[in-house]
Amino acid sequence: MLKQFFIICSGADTHILNDCSVGEQNKYVGIGATVFFTAIMAFIASSYALFVIFENLYSAIFFGLIWGLLIFNLDRYIVSTIKKTGQPLNEFTQAIPRIILAIIIAVVISQPLELKVFEKEINQVLLEQKNELTLANKSQIAEQFTPEIKNLQNEITQLQNQIVTKETKVNALYDTYILEAEGTAGTKLLGKGPVYNEKREKHDAALAELQQLKTENKAKMVSIEKQIVQLQSNYNNELTNTQPIINNFDGLMARVNALGKLPLLPSLFIFLLFLAIETAPIFVKLLAPQGAYDFKLEDQEEAIKAHALQNKNQRETMLKTDIAINNRIYTDIEQEDELYQYKRKKARQLMQLQADAFFNKQKNVL
């Protein structure tokens, strides 16, 4: 049962192969097994790749099965269409397109399995890339908010500097009227005279202005600080909203690119392995000498070809003969006076009927 299944997988004609030796049958059993297990590997590889894309096991298995059947059909077609003619150059020429197709299939099959085999290493590369993207994202978002925050902080600094400057001026006026009262500066008269009162009034007026300035600037600074807090909150929200995008940076394309950053040699070995598996049936057929199956298949095809050619030539000959006979018959009839008189009589009757019909039509009109 298993033997017949692998023979069917090889694409060989079972009716012809059943009449061949056991060794000839085993050759095609091996080819069919290679085709079958290549399709199994294609199913596994495509299912994993599709699972990475869809993140759904059932969808991945369903579409992976379709892909595996497609690869199975292609491999079976490639192997079954290579004909052994006993001419190596001719056989290799007809195998070149099939080898190219086999290489493409090997690449498609091996890539998802490489992703699975080197999954840990790929995750490490992706982690590094995510960290770089996170830092770059923070820097880019900060460029949107930092200048405005700095401008607001500068405004707070300017308001604080206004208060400090005003306080310095008030303190200087305070020292002035105190020294005037002590008689150590100004008029140098001890006591609170008119000059003292004037300087005290200036100080009190400046102190009132200072209190007013503090009240106004404090209100402004509170408002500015609220704006800064809002901008920082917006900055944090932007980071929170964009981080999941970076965290999900592990799709199929990202993994393929990460695989390209790993050393080439291990991936190359896996690709060469699948390339050898995929092209093995082709090279087995190319390198193997013509066997009984090949001779019988060639004999059957040549017999069908000869029969079809014979039928075609026979139909062409019959057509030529029929045309020649018809030409002779109508040439002989052309000379017969009896046929001429008969057709002349019928033509006269037809013209009479036409004249009568026209006469009746005109009569009805009148």
UniProtKB/TrEMBL annotation:
<protein>
    <submittedName>
        <fullName>DUF4407 domain-containing protein</fullName>
    </submittedName>
</protein>
<dbReference type="InterPro" id="IPR025519">
    <property type="entry name" value="DUF4407"/>
</dbReference>
<keyword id="KW-0175">Coiled coil</keyword>
<keyword id="KW-1133">Transmembrane helix</keyword>
<feature type="coiled-coil region">
    <location>
        <begin position="196"/>
        <end position="227"/>
    </location>
</feature>
<feature type="transmembrane region" description="Helical">
    <location>
        <begin position="28"/>
        <end position="51"/>
    </location>
</feature>
<feature type="coiled-coil region">
    <location>
        <begin position="142"/>
        <end position="169"/>
    </location>
</feature>
<keyword id="KW-0472">Membrane</keyword>
<dbReference type="Pfam" id="PF14362">
    <property type="entry name" value="DUF4407"/>
</dbReference>
<feature type="transmembrane region" description="Helical">
    <location>
        <begin position="268"/>
        <end position="288"/>
    </location>
</feature>
<keyword id="KW-0812">Transmembrane</keyword>
<feature type="transmembrane region" description="Helical">
    <location>
        <begin position="57"/>
        <end position="74"/>
    </location>
</feature>
